[in-house]
């Protein structure tokens, strides 16, 4: 079953009512994480919660719980919901107060949902996906996992309107990342990905995949690359908590490589699955 947590209480998801003056609702004034749970084990939970803590610090938002307390709450929620394979959404906002742009004198709000996991099918992993190249119109602090996702939503929908799984974004002539994924190009056996600076989210799955690549002896270069480089790549792929390691087989009208997931992507995904256990 699904379950929610809001400001200290576990409740049925459908019964939770968010106050109209909640700043996440009115301003998007908060941060969030998504954690995938495999067979009862939240994958890389500590890493996700440390990133949440860093995002909160970046927007000057005090964390109402420690990382350890959040871990306990997540385990409790999974037990209460009787979920083994799940997706946990965790959000912290600047609280509930009459609308003013400046920070209120109010305690932060914490909400979570615990739902059965909706994973991509093996058919999707085996076929790969089509993506659309779009301008990156997001703000300049993309390393913060902020609730302000309107540019991401618009990019994702534009991609969907074109029959694509994802939008791969381009800023100042270089590929940054996907609307909800990190992006990579492979050329001559080398994996290229945008440097982990303020222009991209420092993906938890991204970090795990770079570790996996090192273990496999696959060279990774964190450097800028152009849309033209991506279009001429031997392989390309996306990573995220929900997409894991997913081949890009077409960018707009251009087929990438053979049009099927290539050997580098297959090796990385297989090794990543071992990491999941």
UniProtKB/TrEMBL annotation:
Cited InterPro entries? Aminotrans_IV (IPR001544), Aminotrans_IV_CS (IPR018300), Aminotransferase-like (IPR036038), BCAT-like_C (IPR043132), BCAT-like_N (IPR043131), Class-IV_PLP-Dep_Aminotrnsfr (IPR050571), D_amino_transT (IPR005784)
What is any Pfam family matched here? Aminotran_4
Q: Which GO terms describe its cellular component?
A: cytosol
Kindly list the GO molecular function terms attached to this UniProt entry.
D-alanine-2-oxoglutarate aminotransferase activity; pyridoxal phosphate binding
Quote the catalytic activity from the record.
D-alanine + 2-oxoglutarate = D-glutamate + pyruvate
Q: Does the keyword Hydrolase apply?
A: no
Which Gene Ontology terms describe the biological processes this protein takes part in? Answer: amino acid biosynthetic process; carboxylic acid biosynthetic process; D-amino acid metabolic process
PROSITE patterns given for it?
Answer: AA_TRANSFER_CLASS_4
Q: Which cofactor does it need?
A: pyridoxal 5'-phosphate
Transmembrane ranges? none
Protein's UniProt keywords contain Transferase:
yes
Swiss-Prot/TrEMBL keywords = Aminotransferase, Pyridoxal phosphate, Transferase
Q: Which domain of life is it from?
A: Bacteria
EC numbers for this chain: 2.6.1.21
What does the subunit comment say? Answer: Homodimer.
Instruction: Give the family from UniProt.
Output: Belongs to the class-IV pyridoxal-phosphate-dependent aminotransferase family.
The job of this chain, per UniProt, is described as: Acts on the D-isomers of alanine, leucine, aspartate, glutamate, aminobutyrate, norvaline and asparagine. The enzyme transfers an amino group from a substrate D-amino acid to the pyridoxal phosphate cofactor to form pyridoxamine and an alpha-keto acid in the first half-reaction.
Its name, as the record gives it, is: D-alanine aminotransferase
């Amino acid at each position: 079953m699904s379950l929610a947590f809001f400001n200290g209480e576990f409740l049925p998801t459908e019964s939770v009512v968010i106050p109209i003056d909640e700043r996440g609702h009115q301003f998007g004034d908060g941060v969030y994480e998504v954690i995938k749970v495999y067979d009862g084990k939240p994958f890389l939970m500590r890493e996700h919660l440390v990133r949440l803590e860093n995002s909160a610090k970046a927007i000057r938002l005090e964390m109402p719980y420690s990382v350890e307390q959040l871990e306990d709450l997540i385990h409790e929620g999974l037990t209460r919901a009787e979920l083994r394979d799940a997706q946990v959404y965790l959000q912290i906002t600047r609280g509930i107060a009459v609308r003013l742009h400046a920070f209120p004198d109010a305690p932060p709000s914490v909400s979570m949902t615990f739902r059965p996991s909706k994973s991509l099918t093996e058919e999707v992993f085996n076929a790969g996906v089509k993506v659309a190249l779009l301008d990156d119109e997001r703000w300049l602090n993309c390393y913060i996992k902020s609730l302000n996702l309107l540019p991401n939503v618009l990019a994702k929908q534009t991609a969907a309107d074109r029959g694509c799984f994802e939008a791969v974004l381009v800023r100042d002539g270089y590929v940054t990342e996907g609307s909800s994924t990190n992006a990579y190009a492979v050329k001559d056996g080398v994996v290229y990905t945008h440097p982990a600076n303020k222009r991209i989210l420092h993906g938890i799955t991204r970090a795990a995949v770079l570790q996996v690549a090192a273990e496999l002896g696959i060279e990774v270069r964190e450097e800028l690359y152009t849309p033209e480089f991506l279009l001429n790549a031997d392989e390309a792929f996306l990573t995220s908590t929900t997409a894991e390691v997913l081949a890009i087989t077409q960018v707009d009208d251009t087929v990438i490589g053979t049009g099927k997931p290539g050997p580098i992507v297959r090796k990385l995904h297989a090794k990543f699955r071992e990491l999941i256990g």
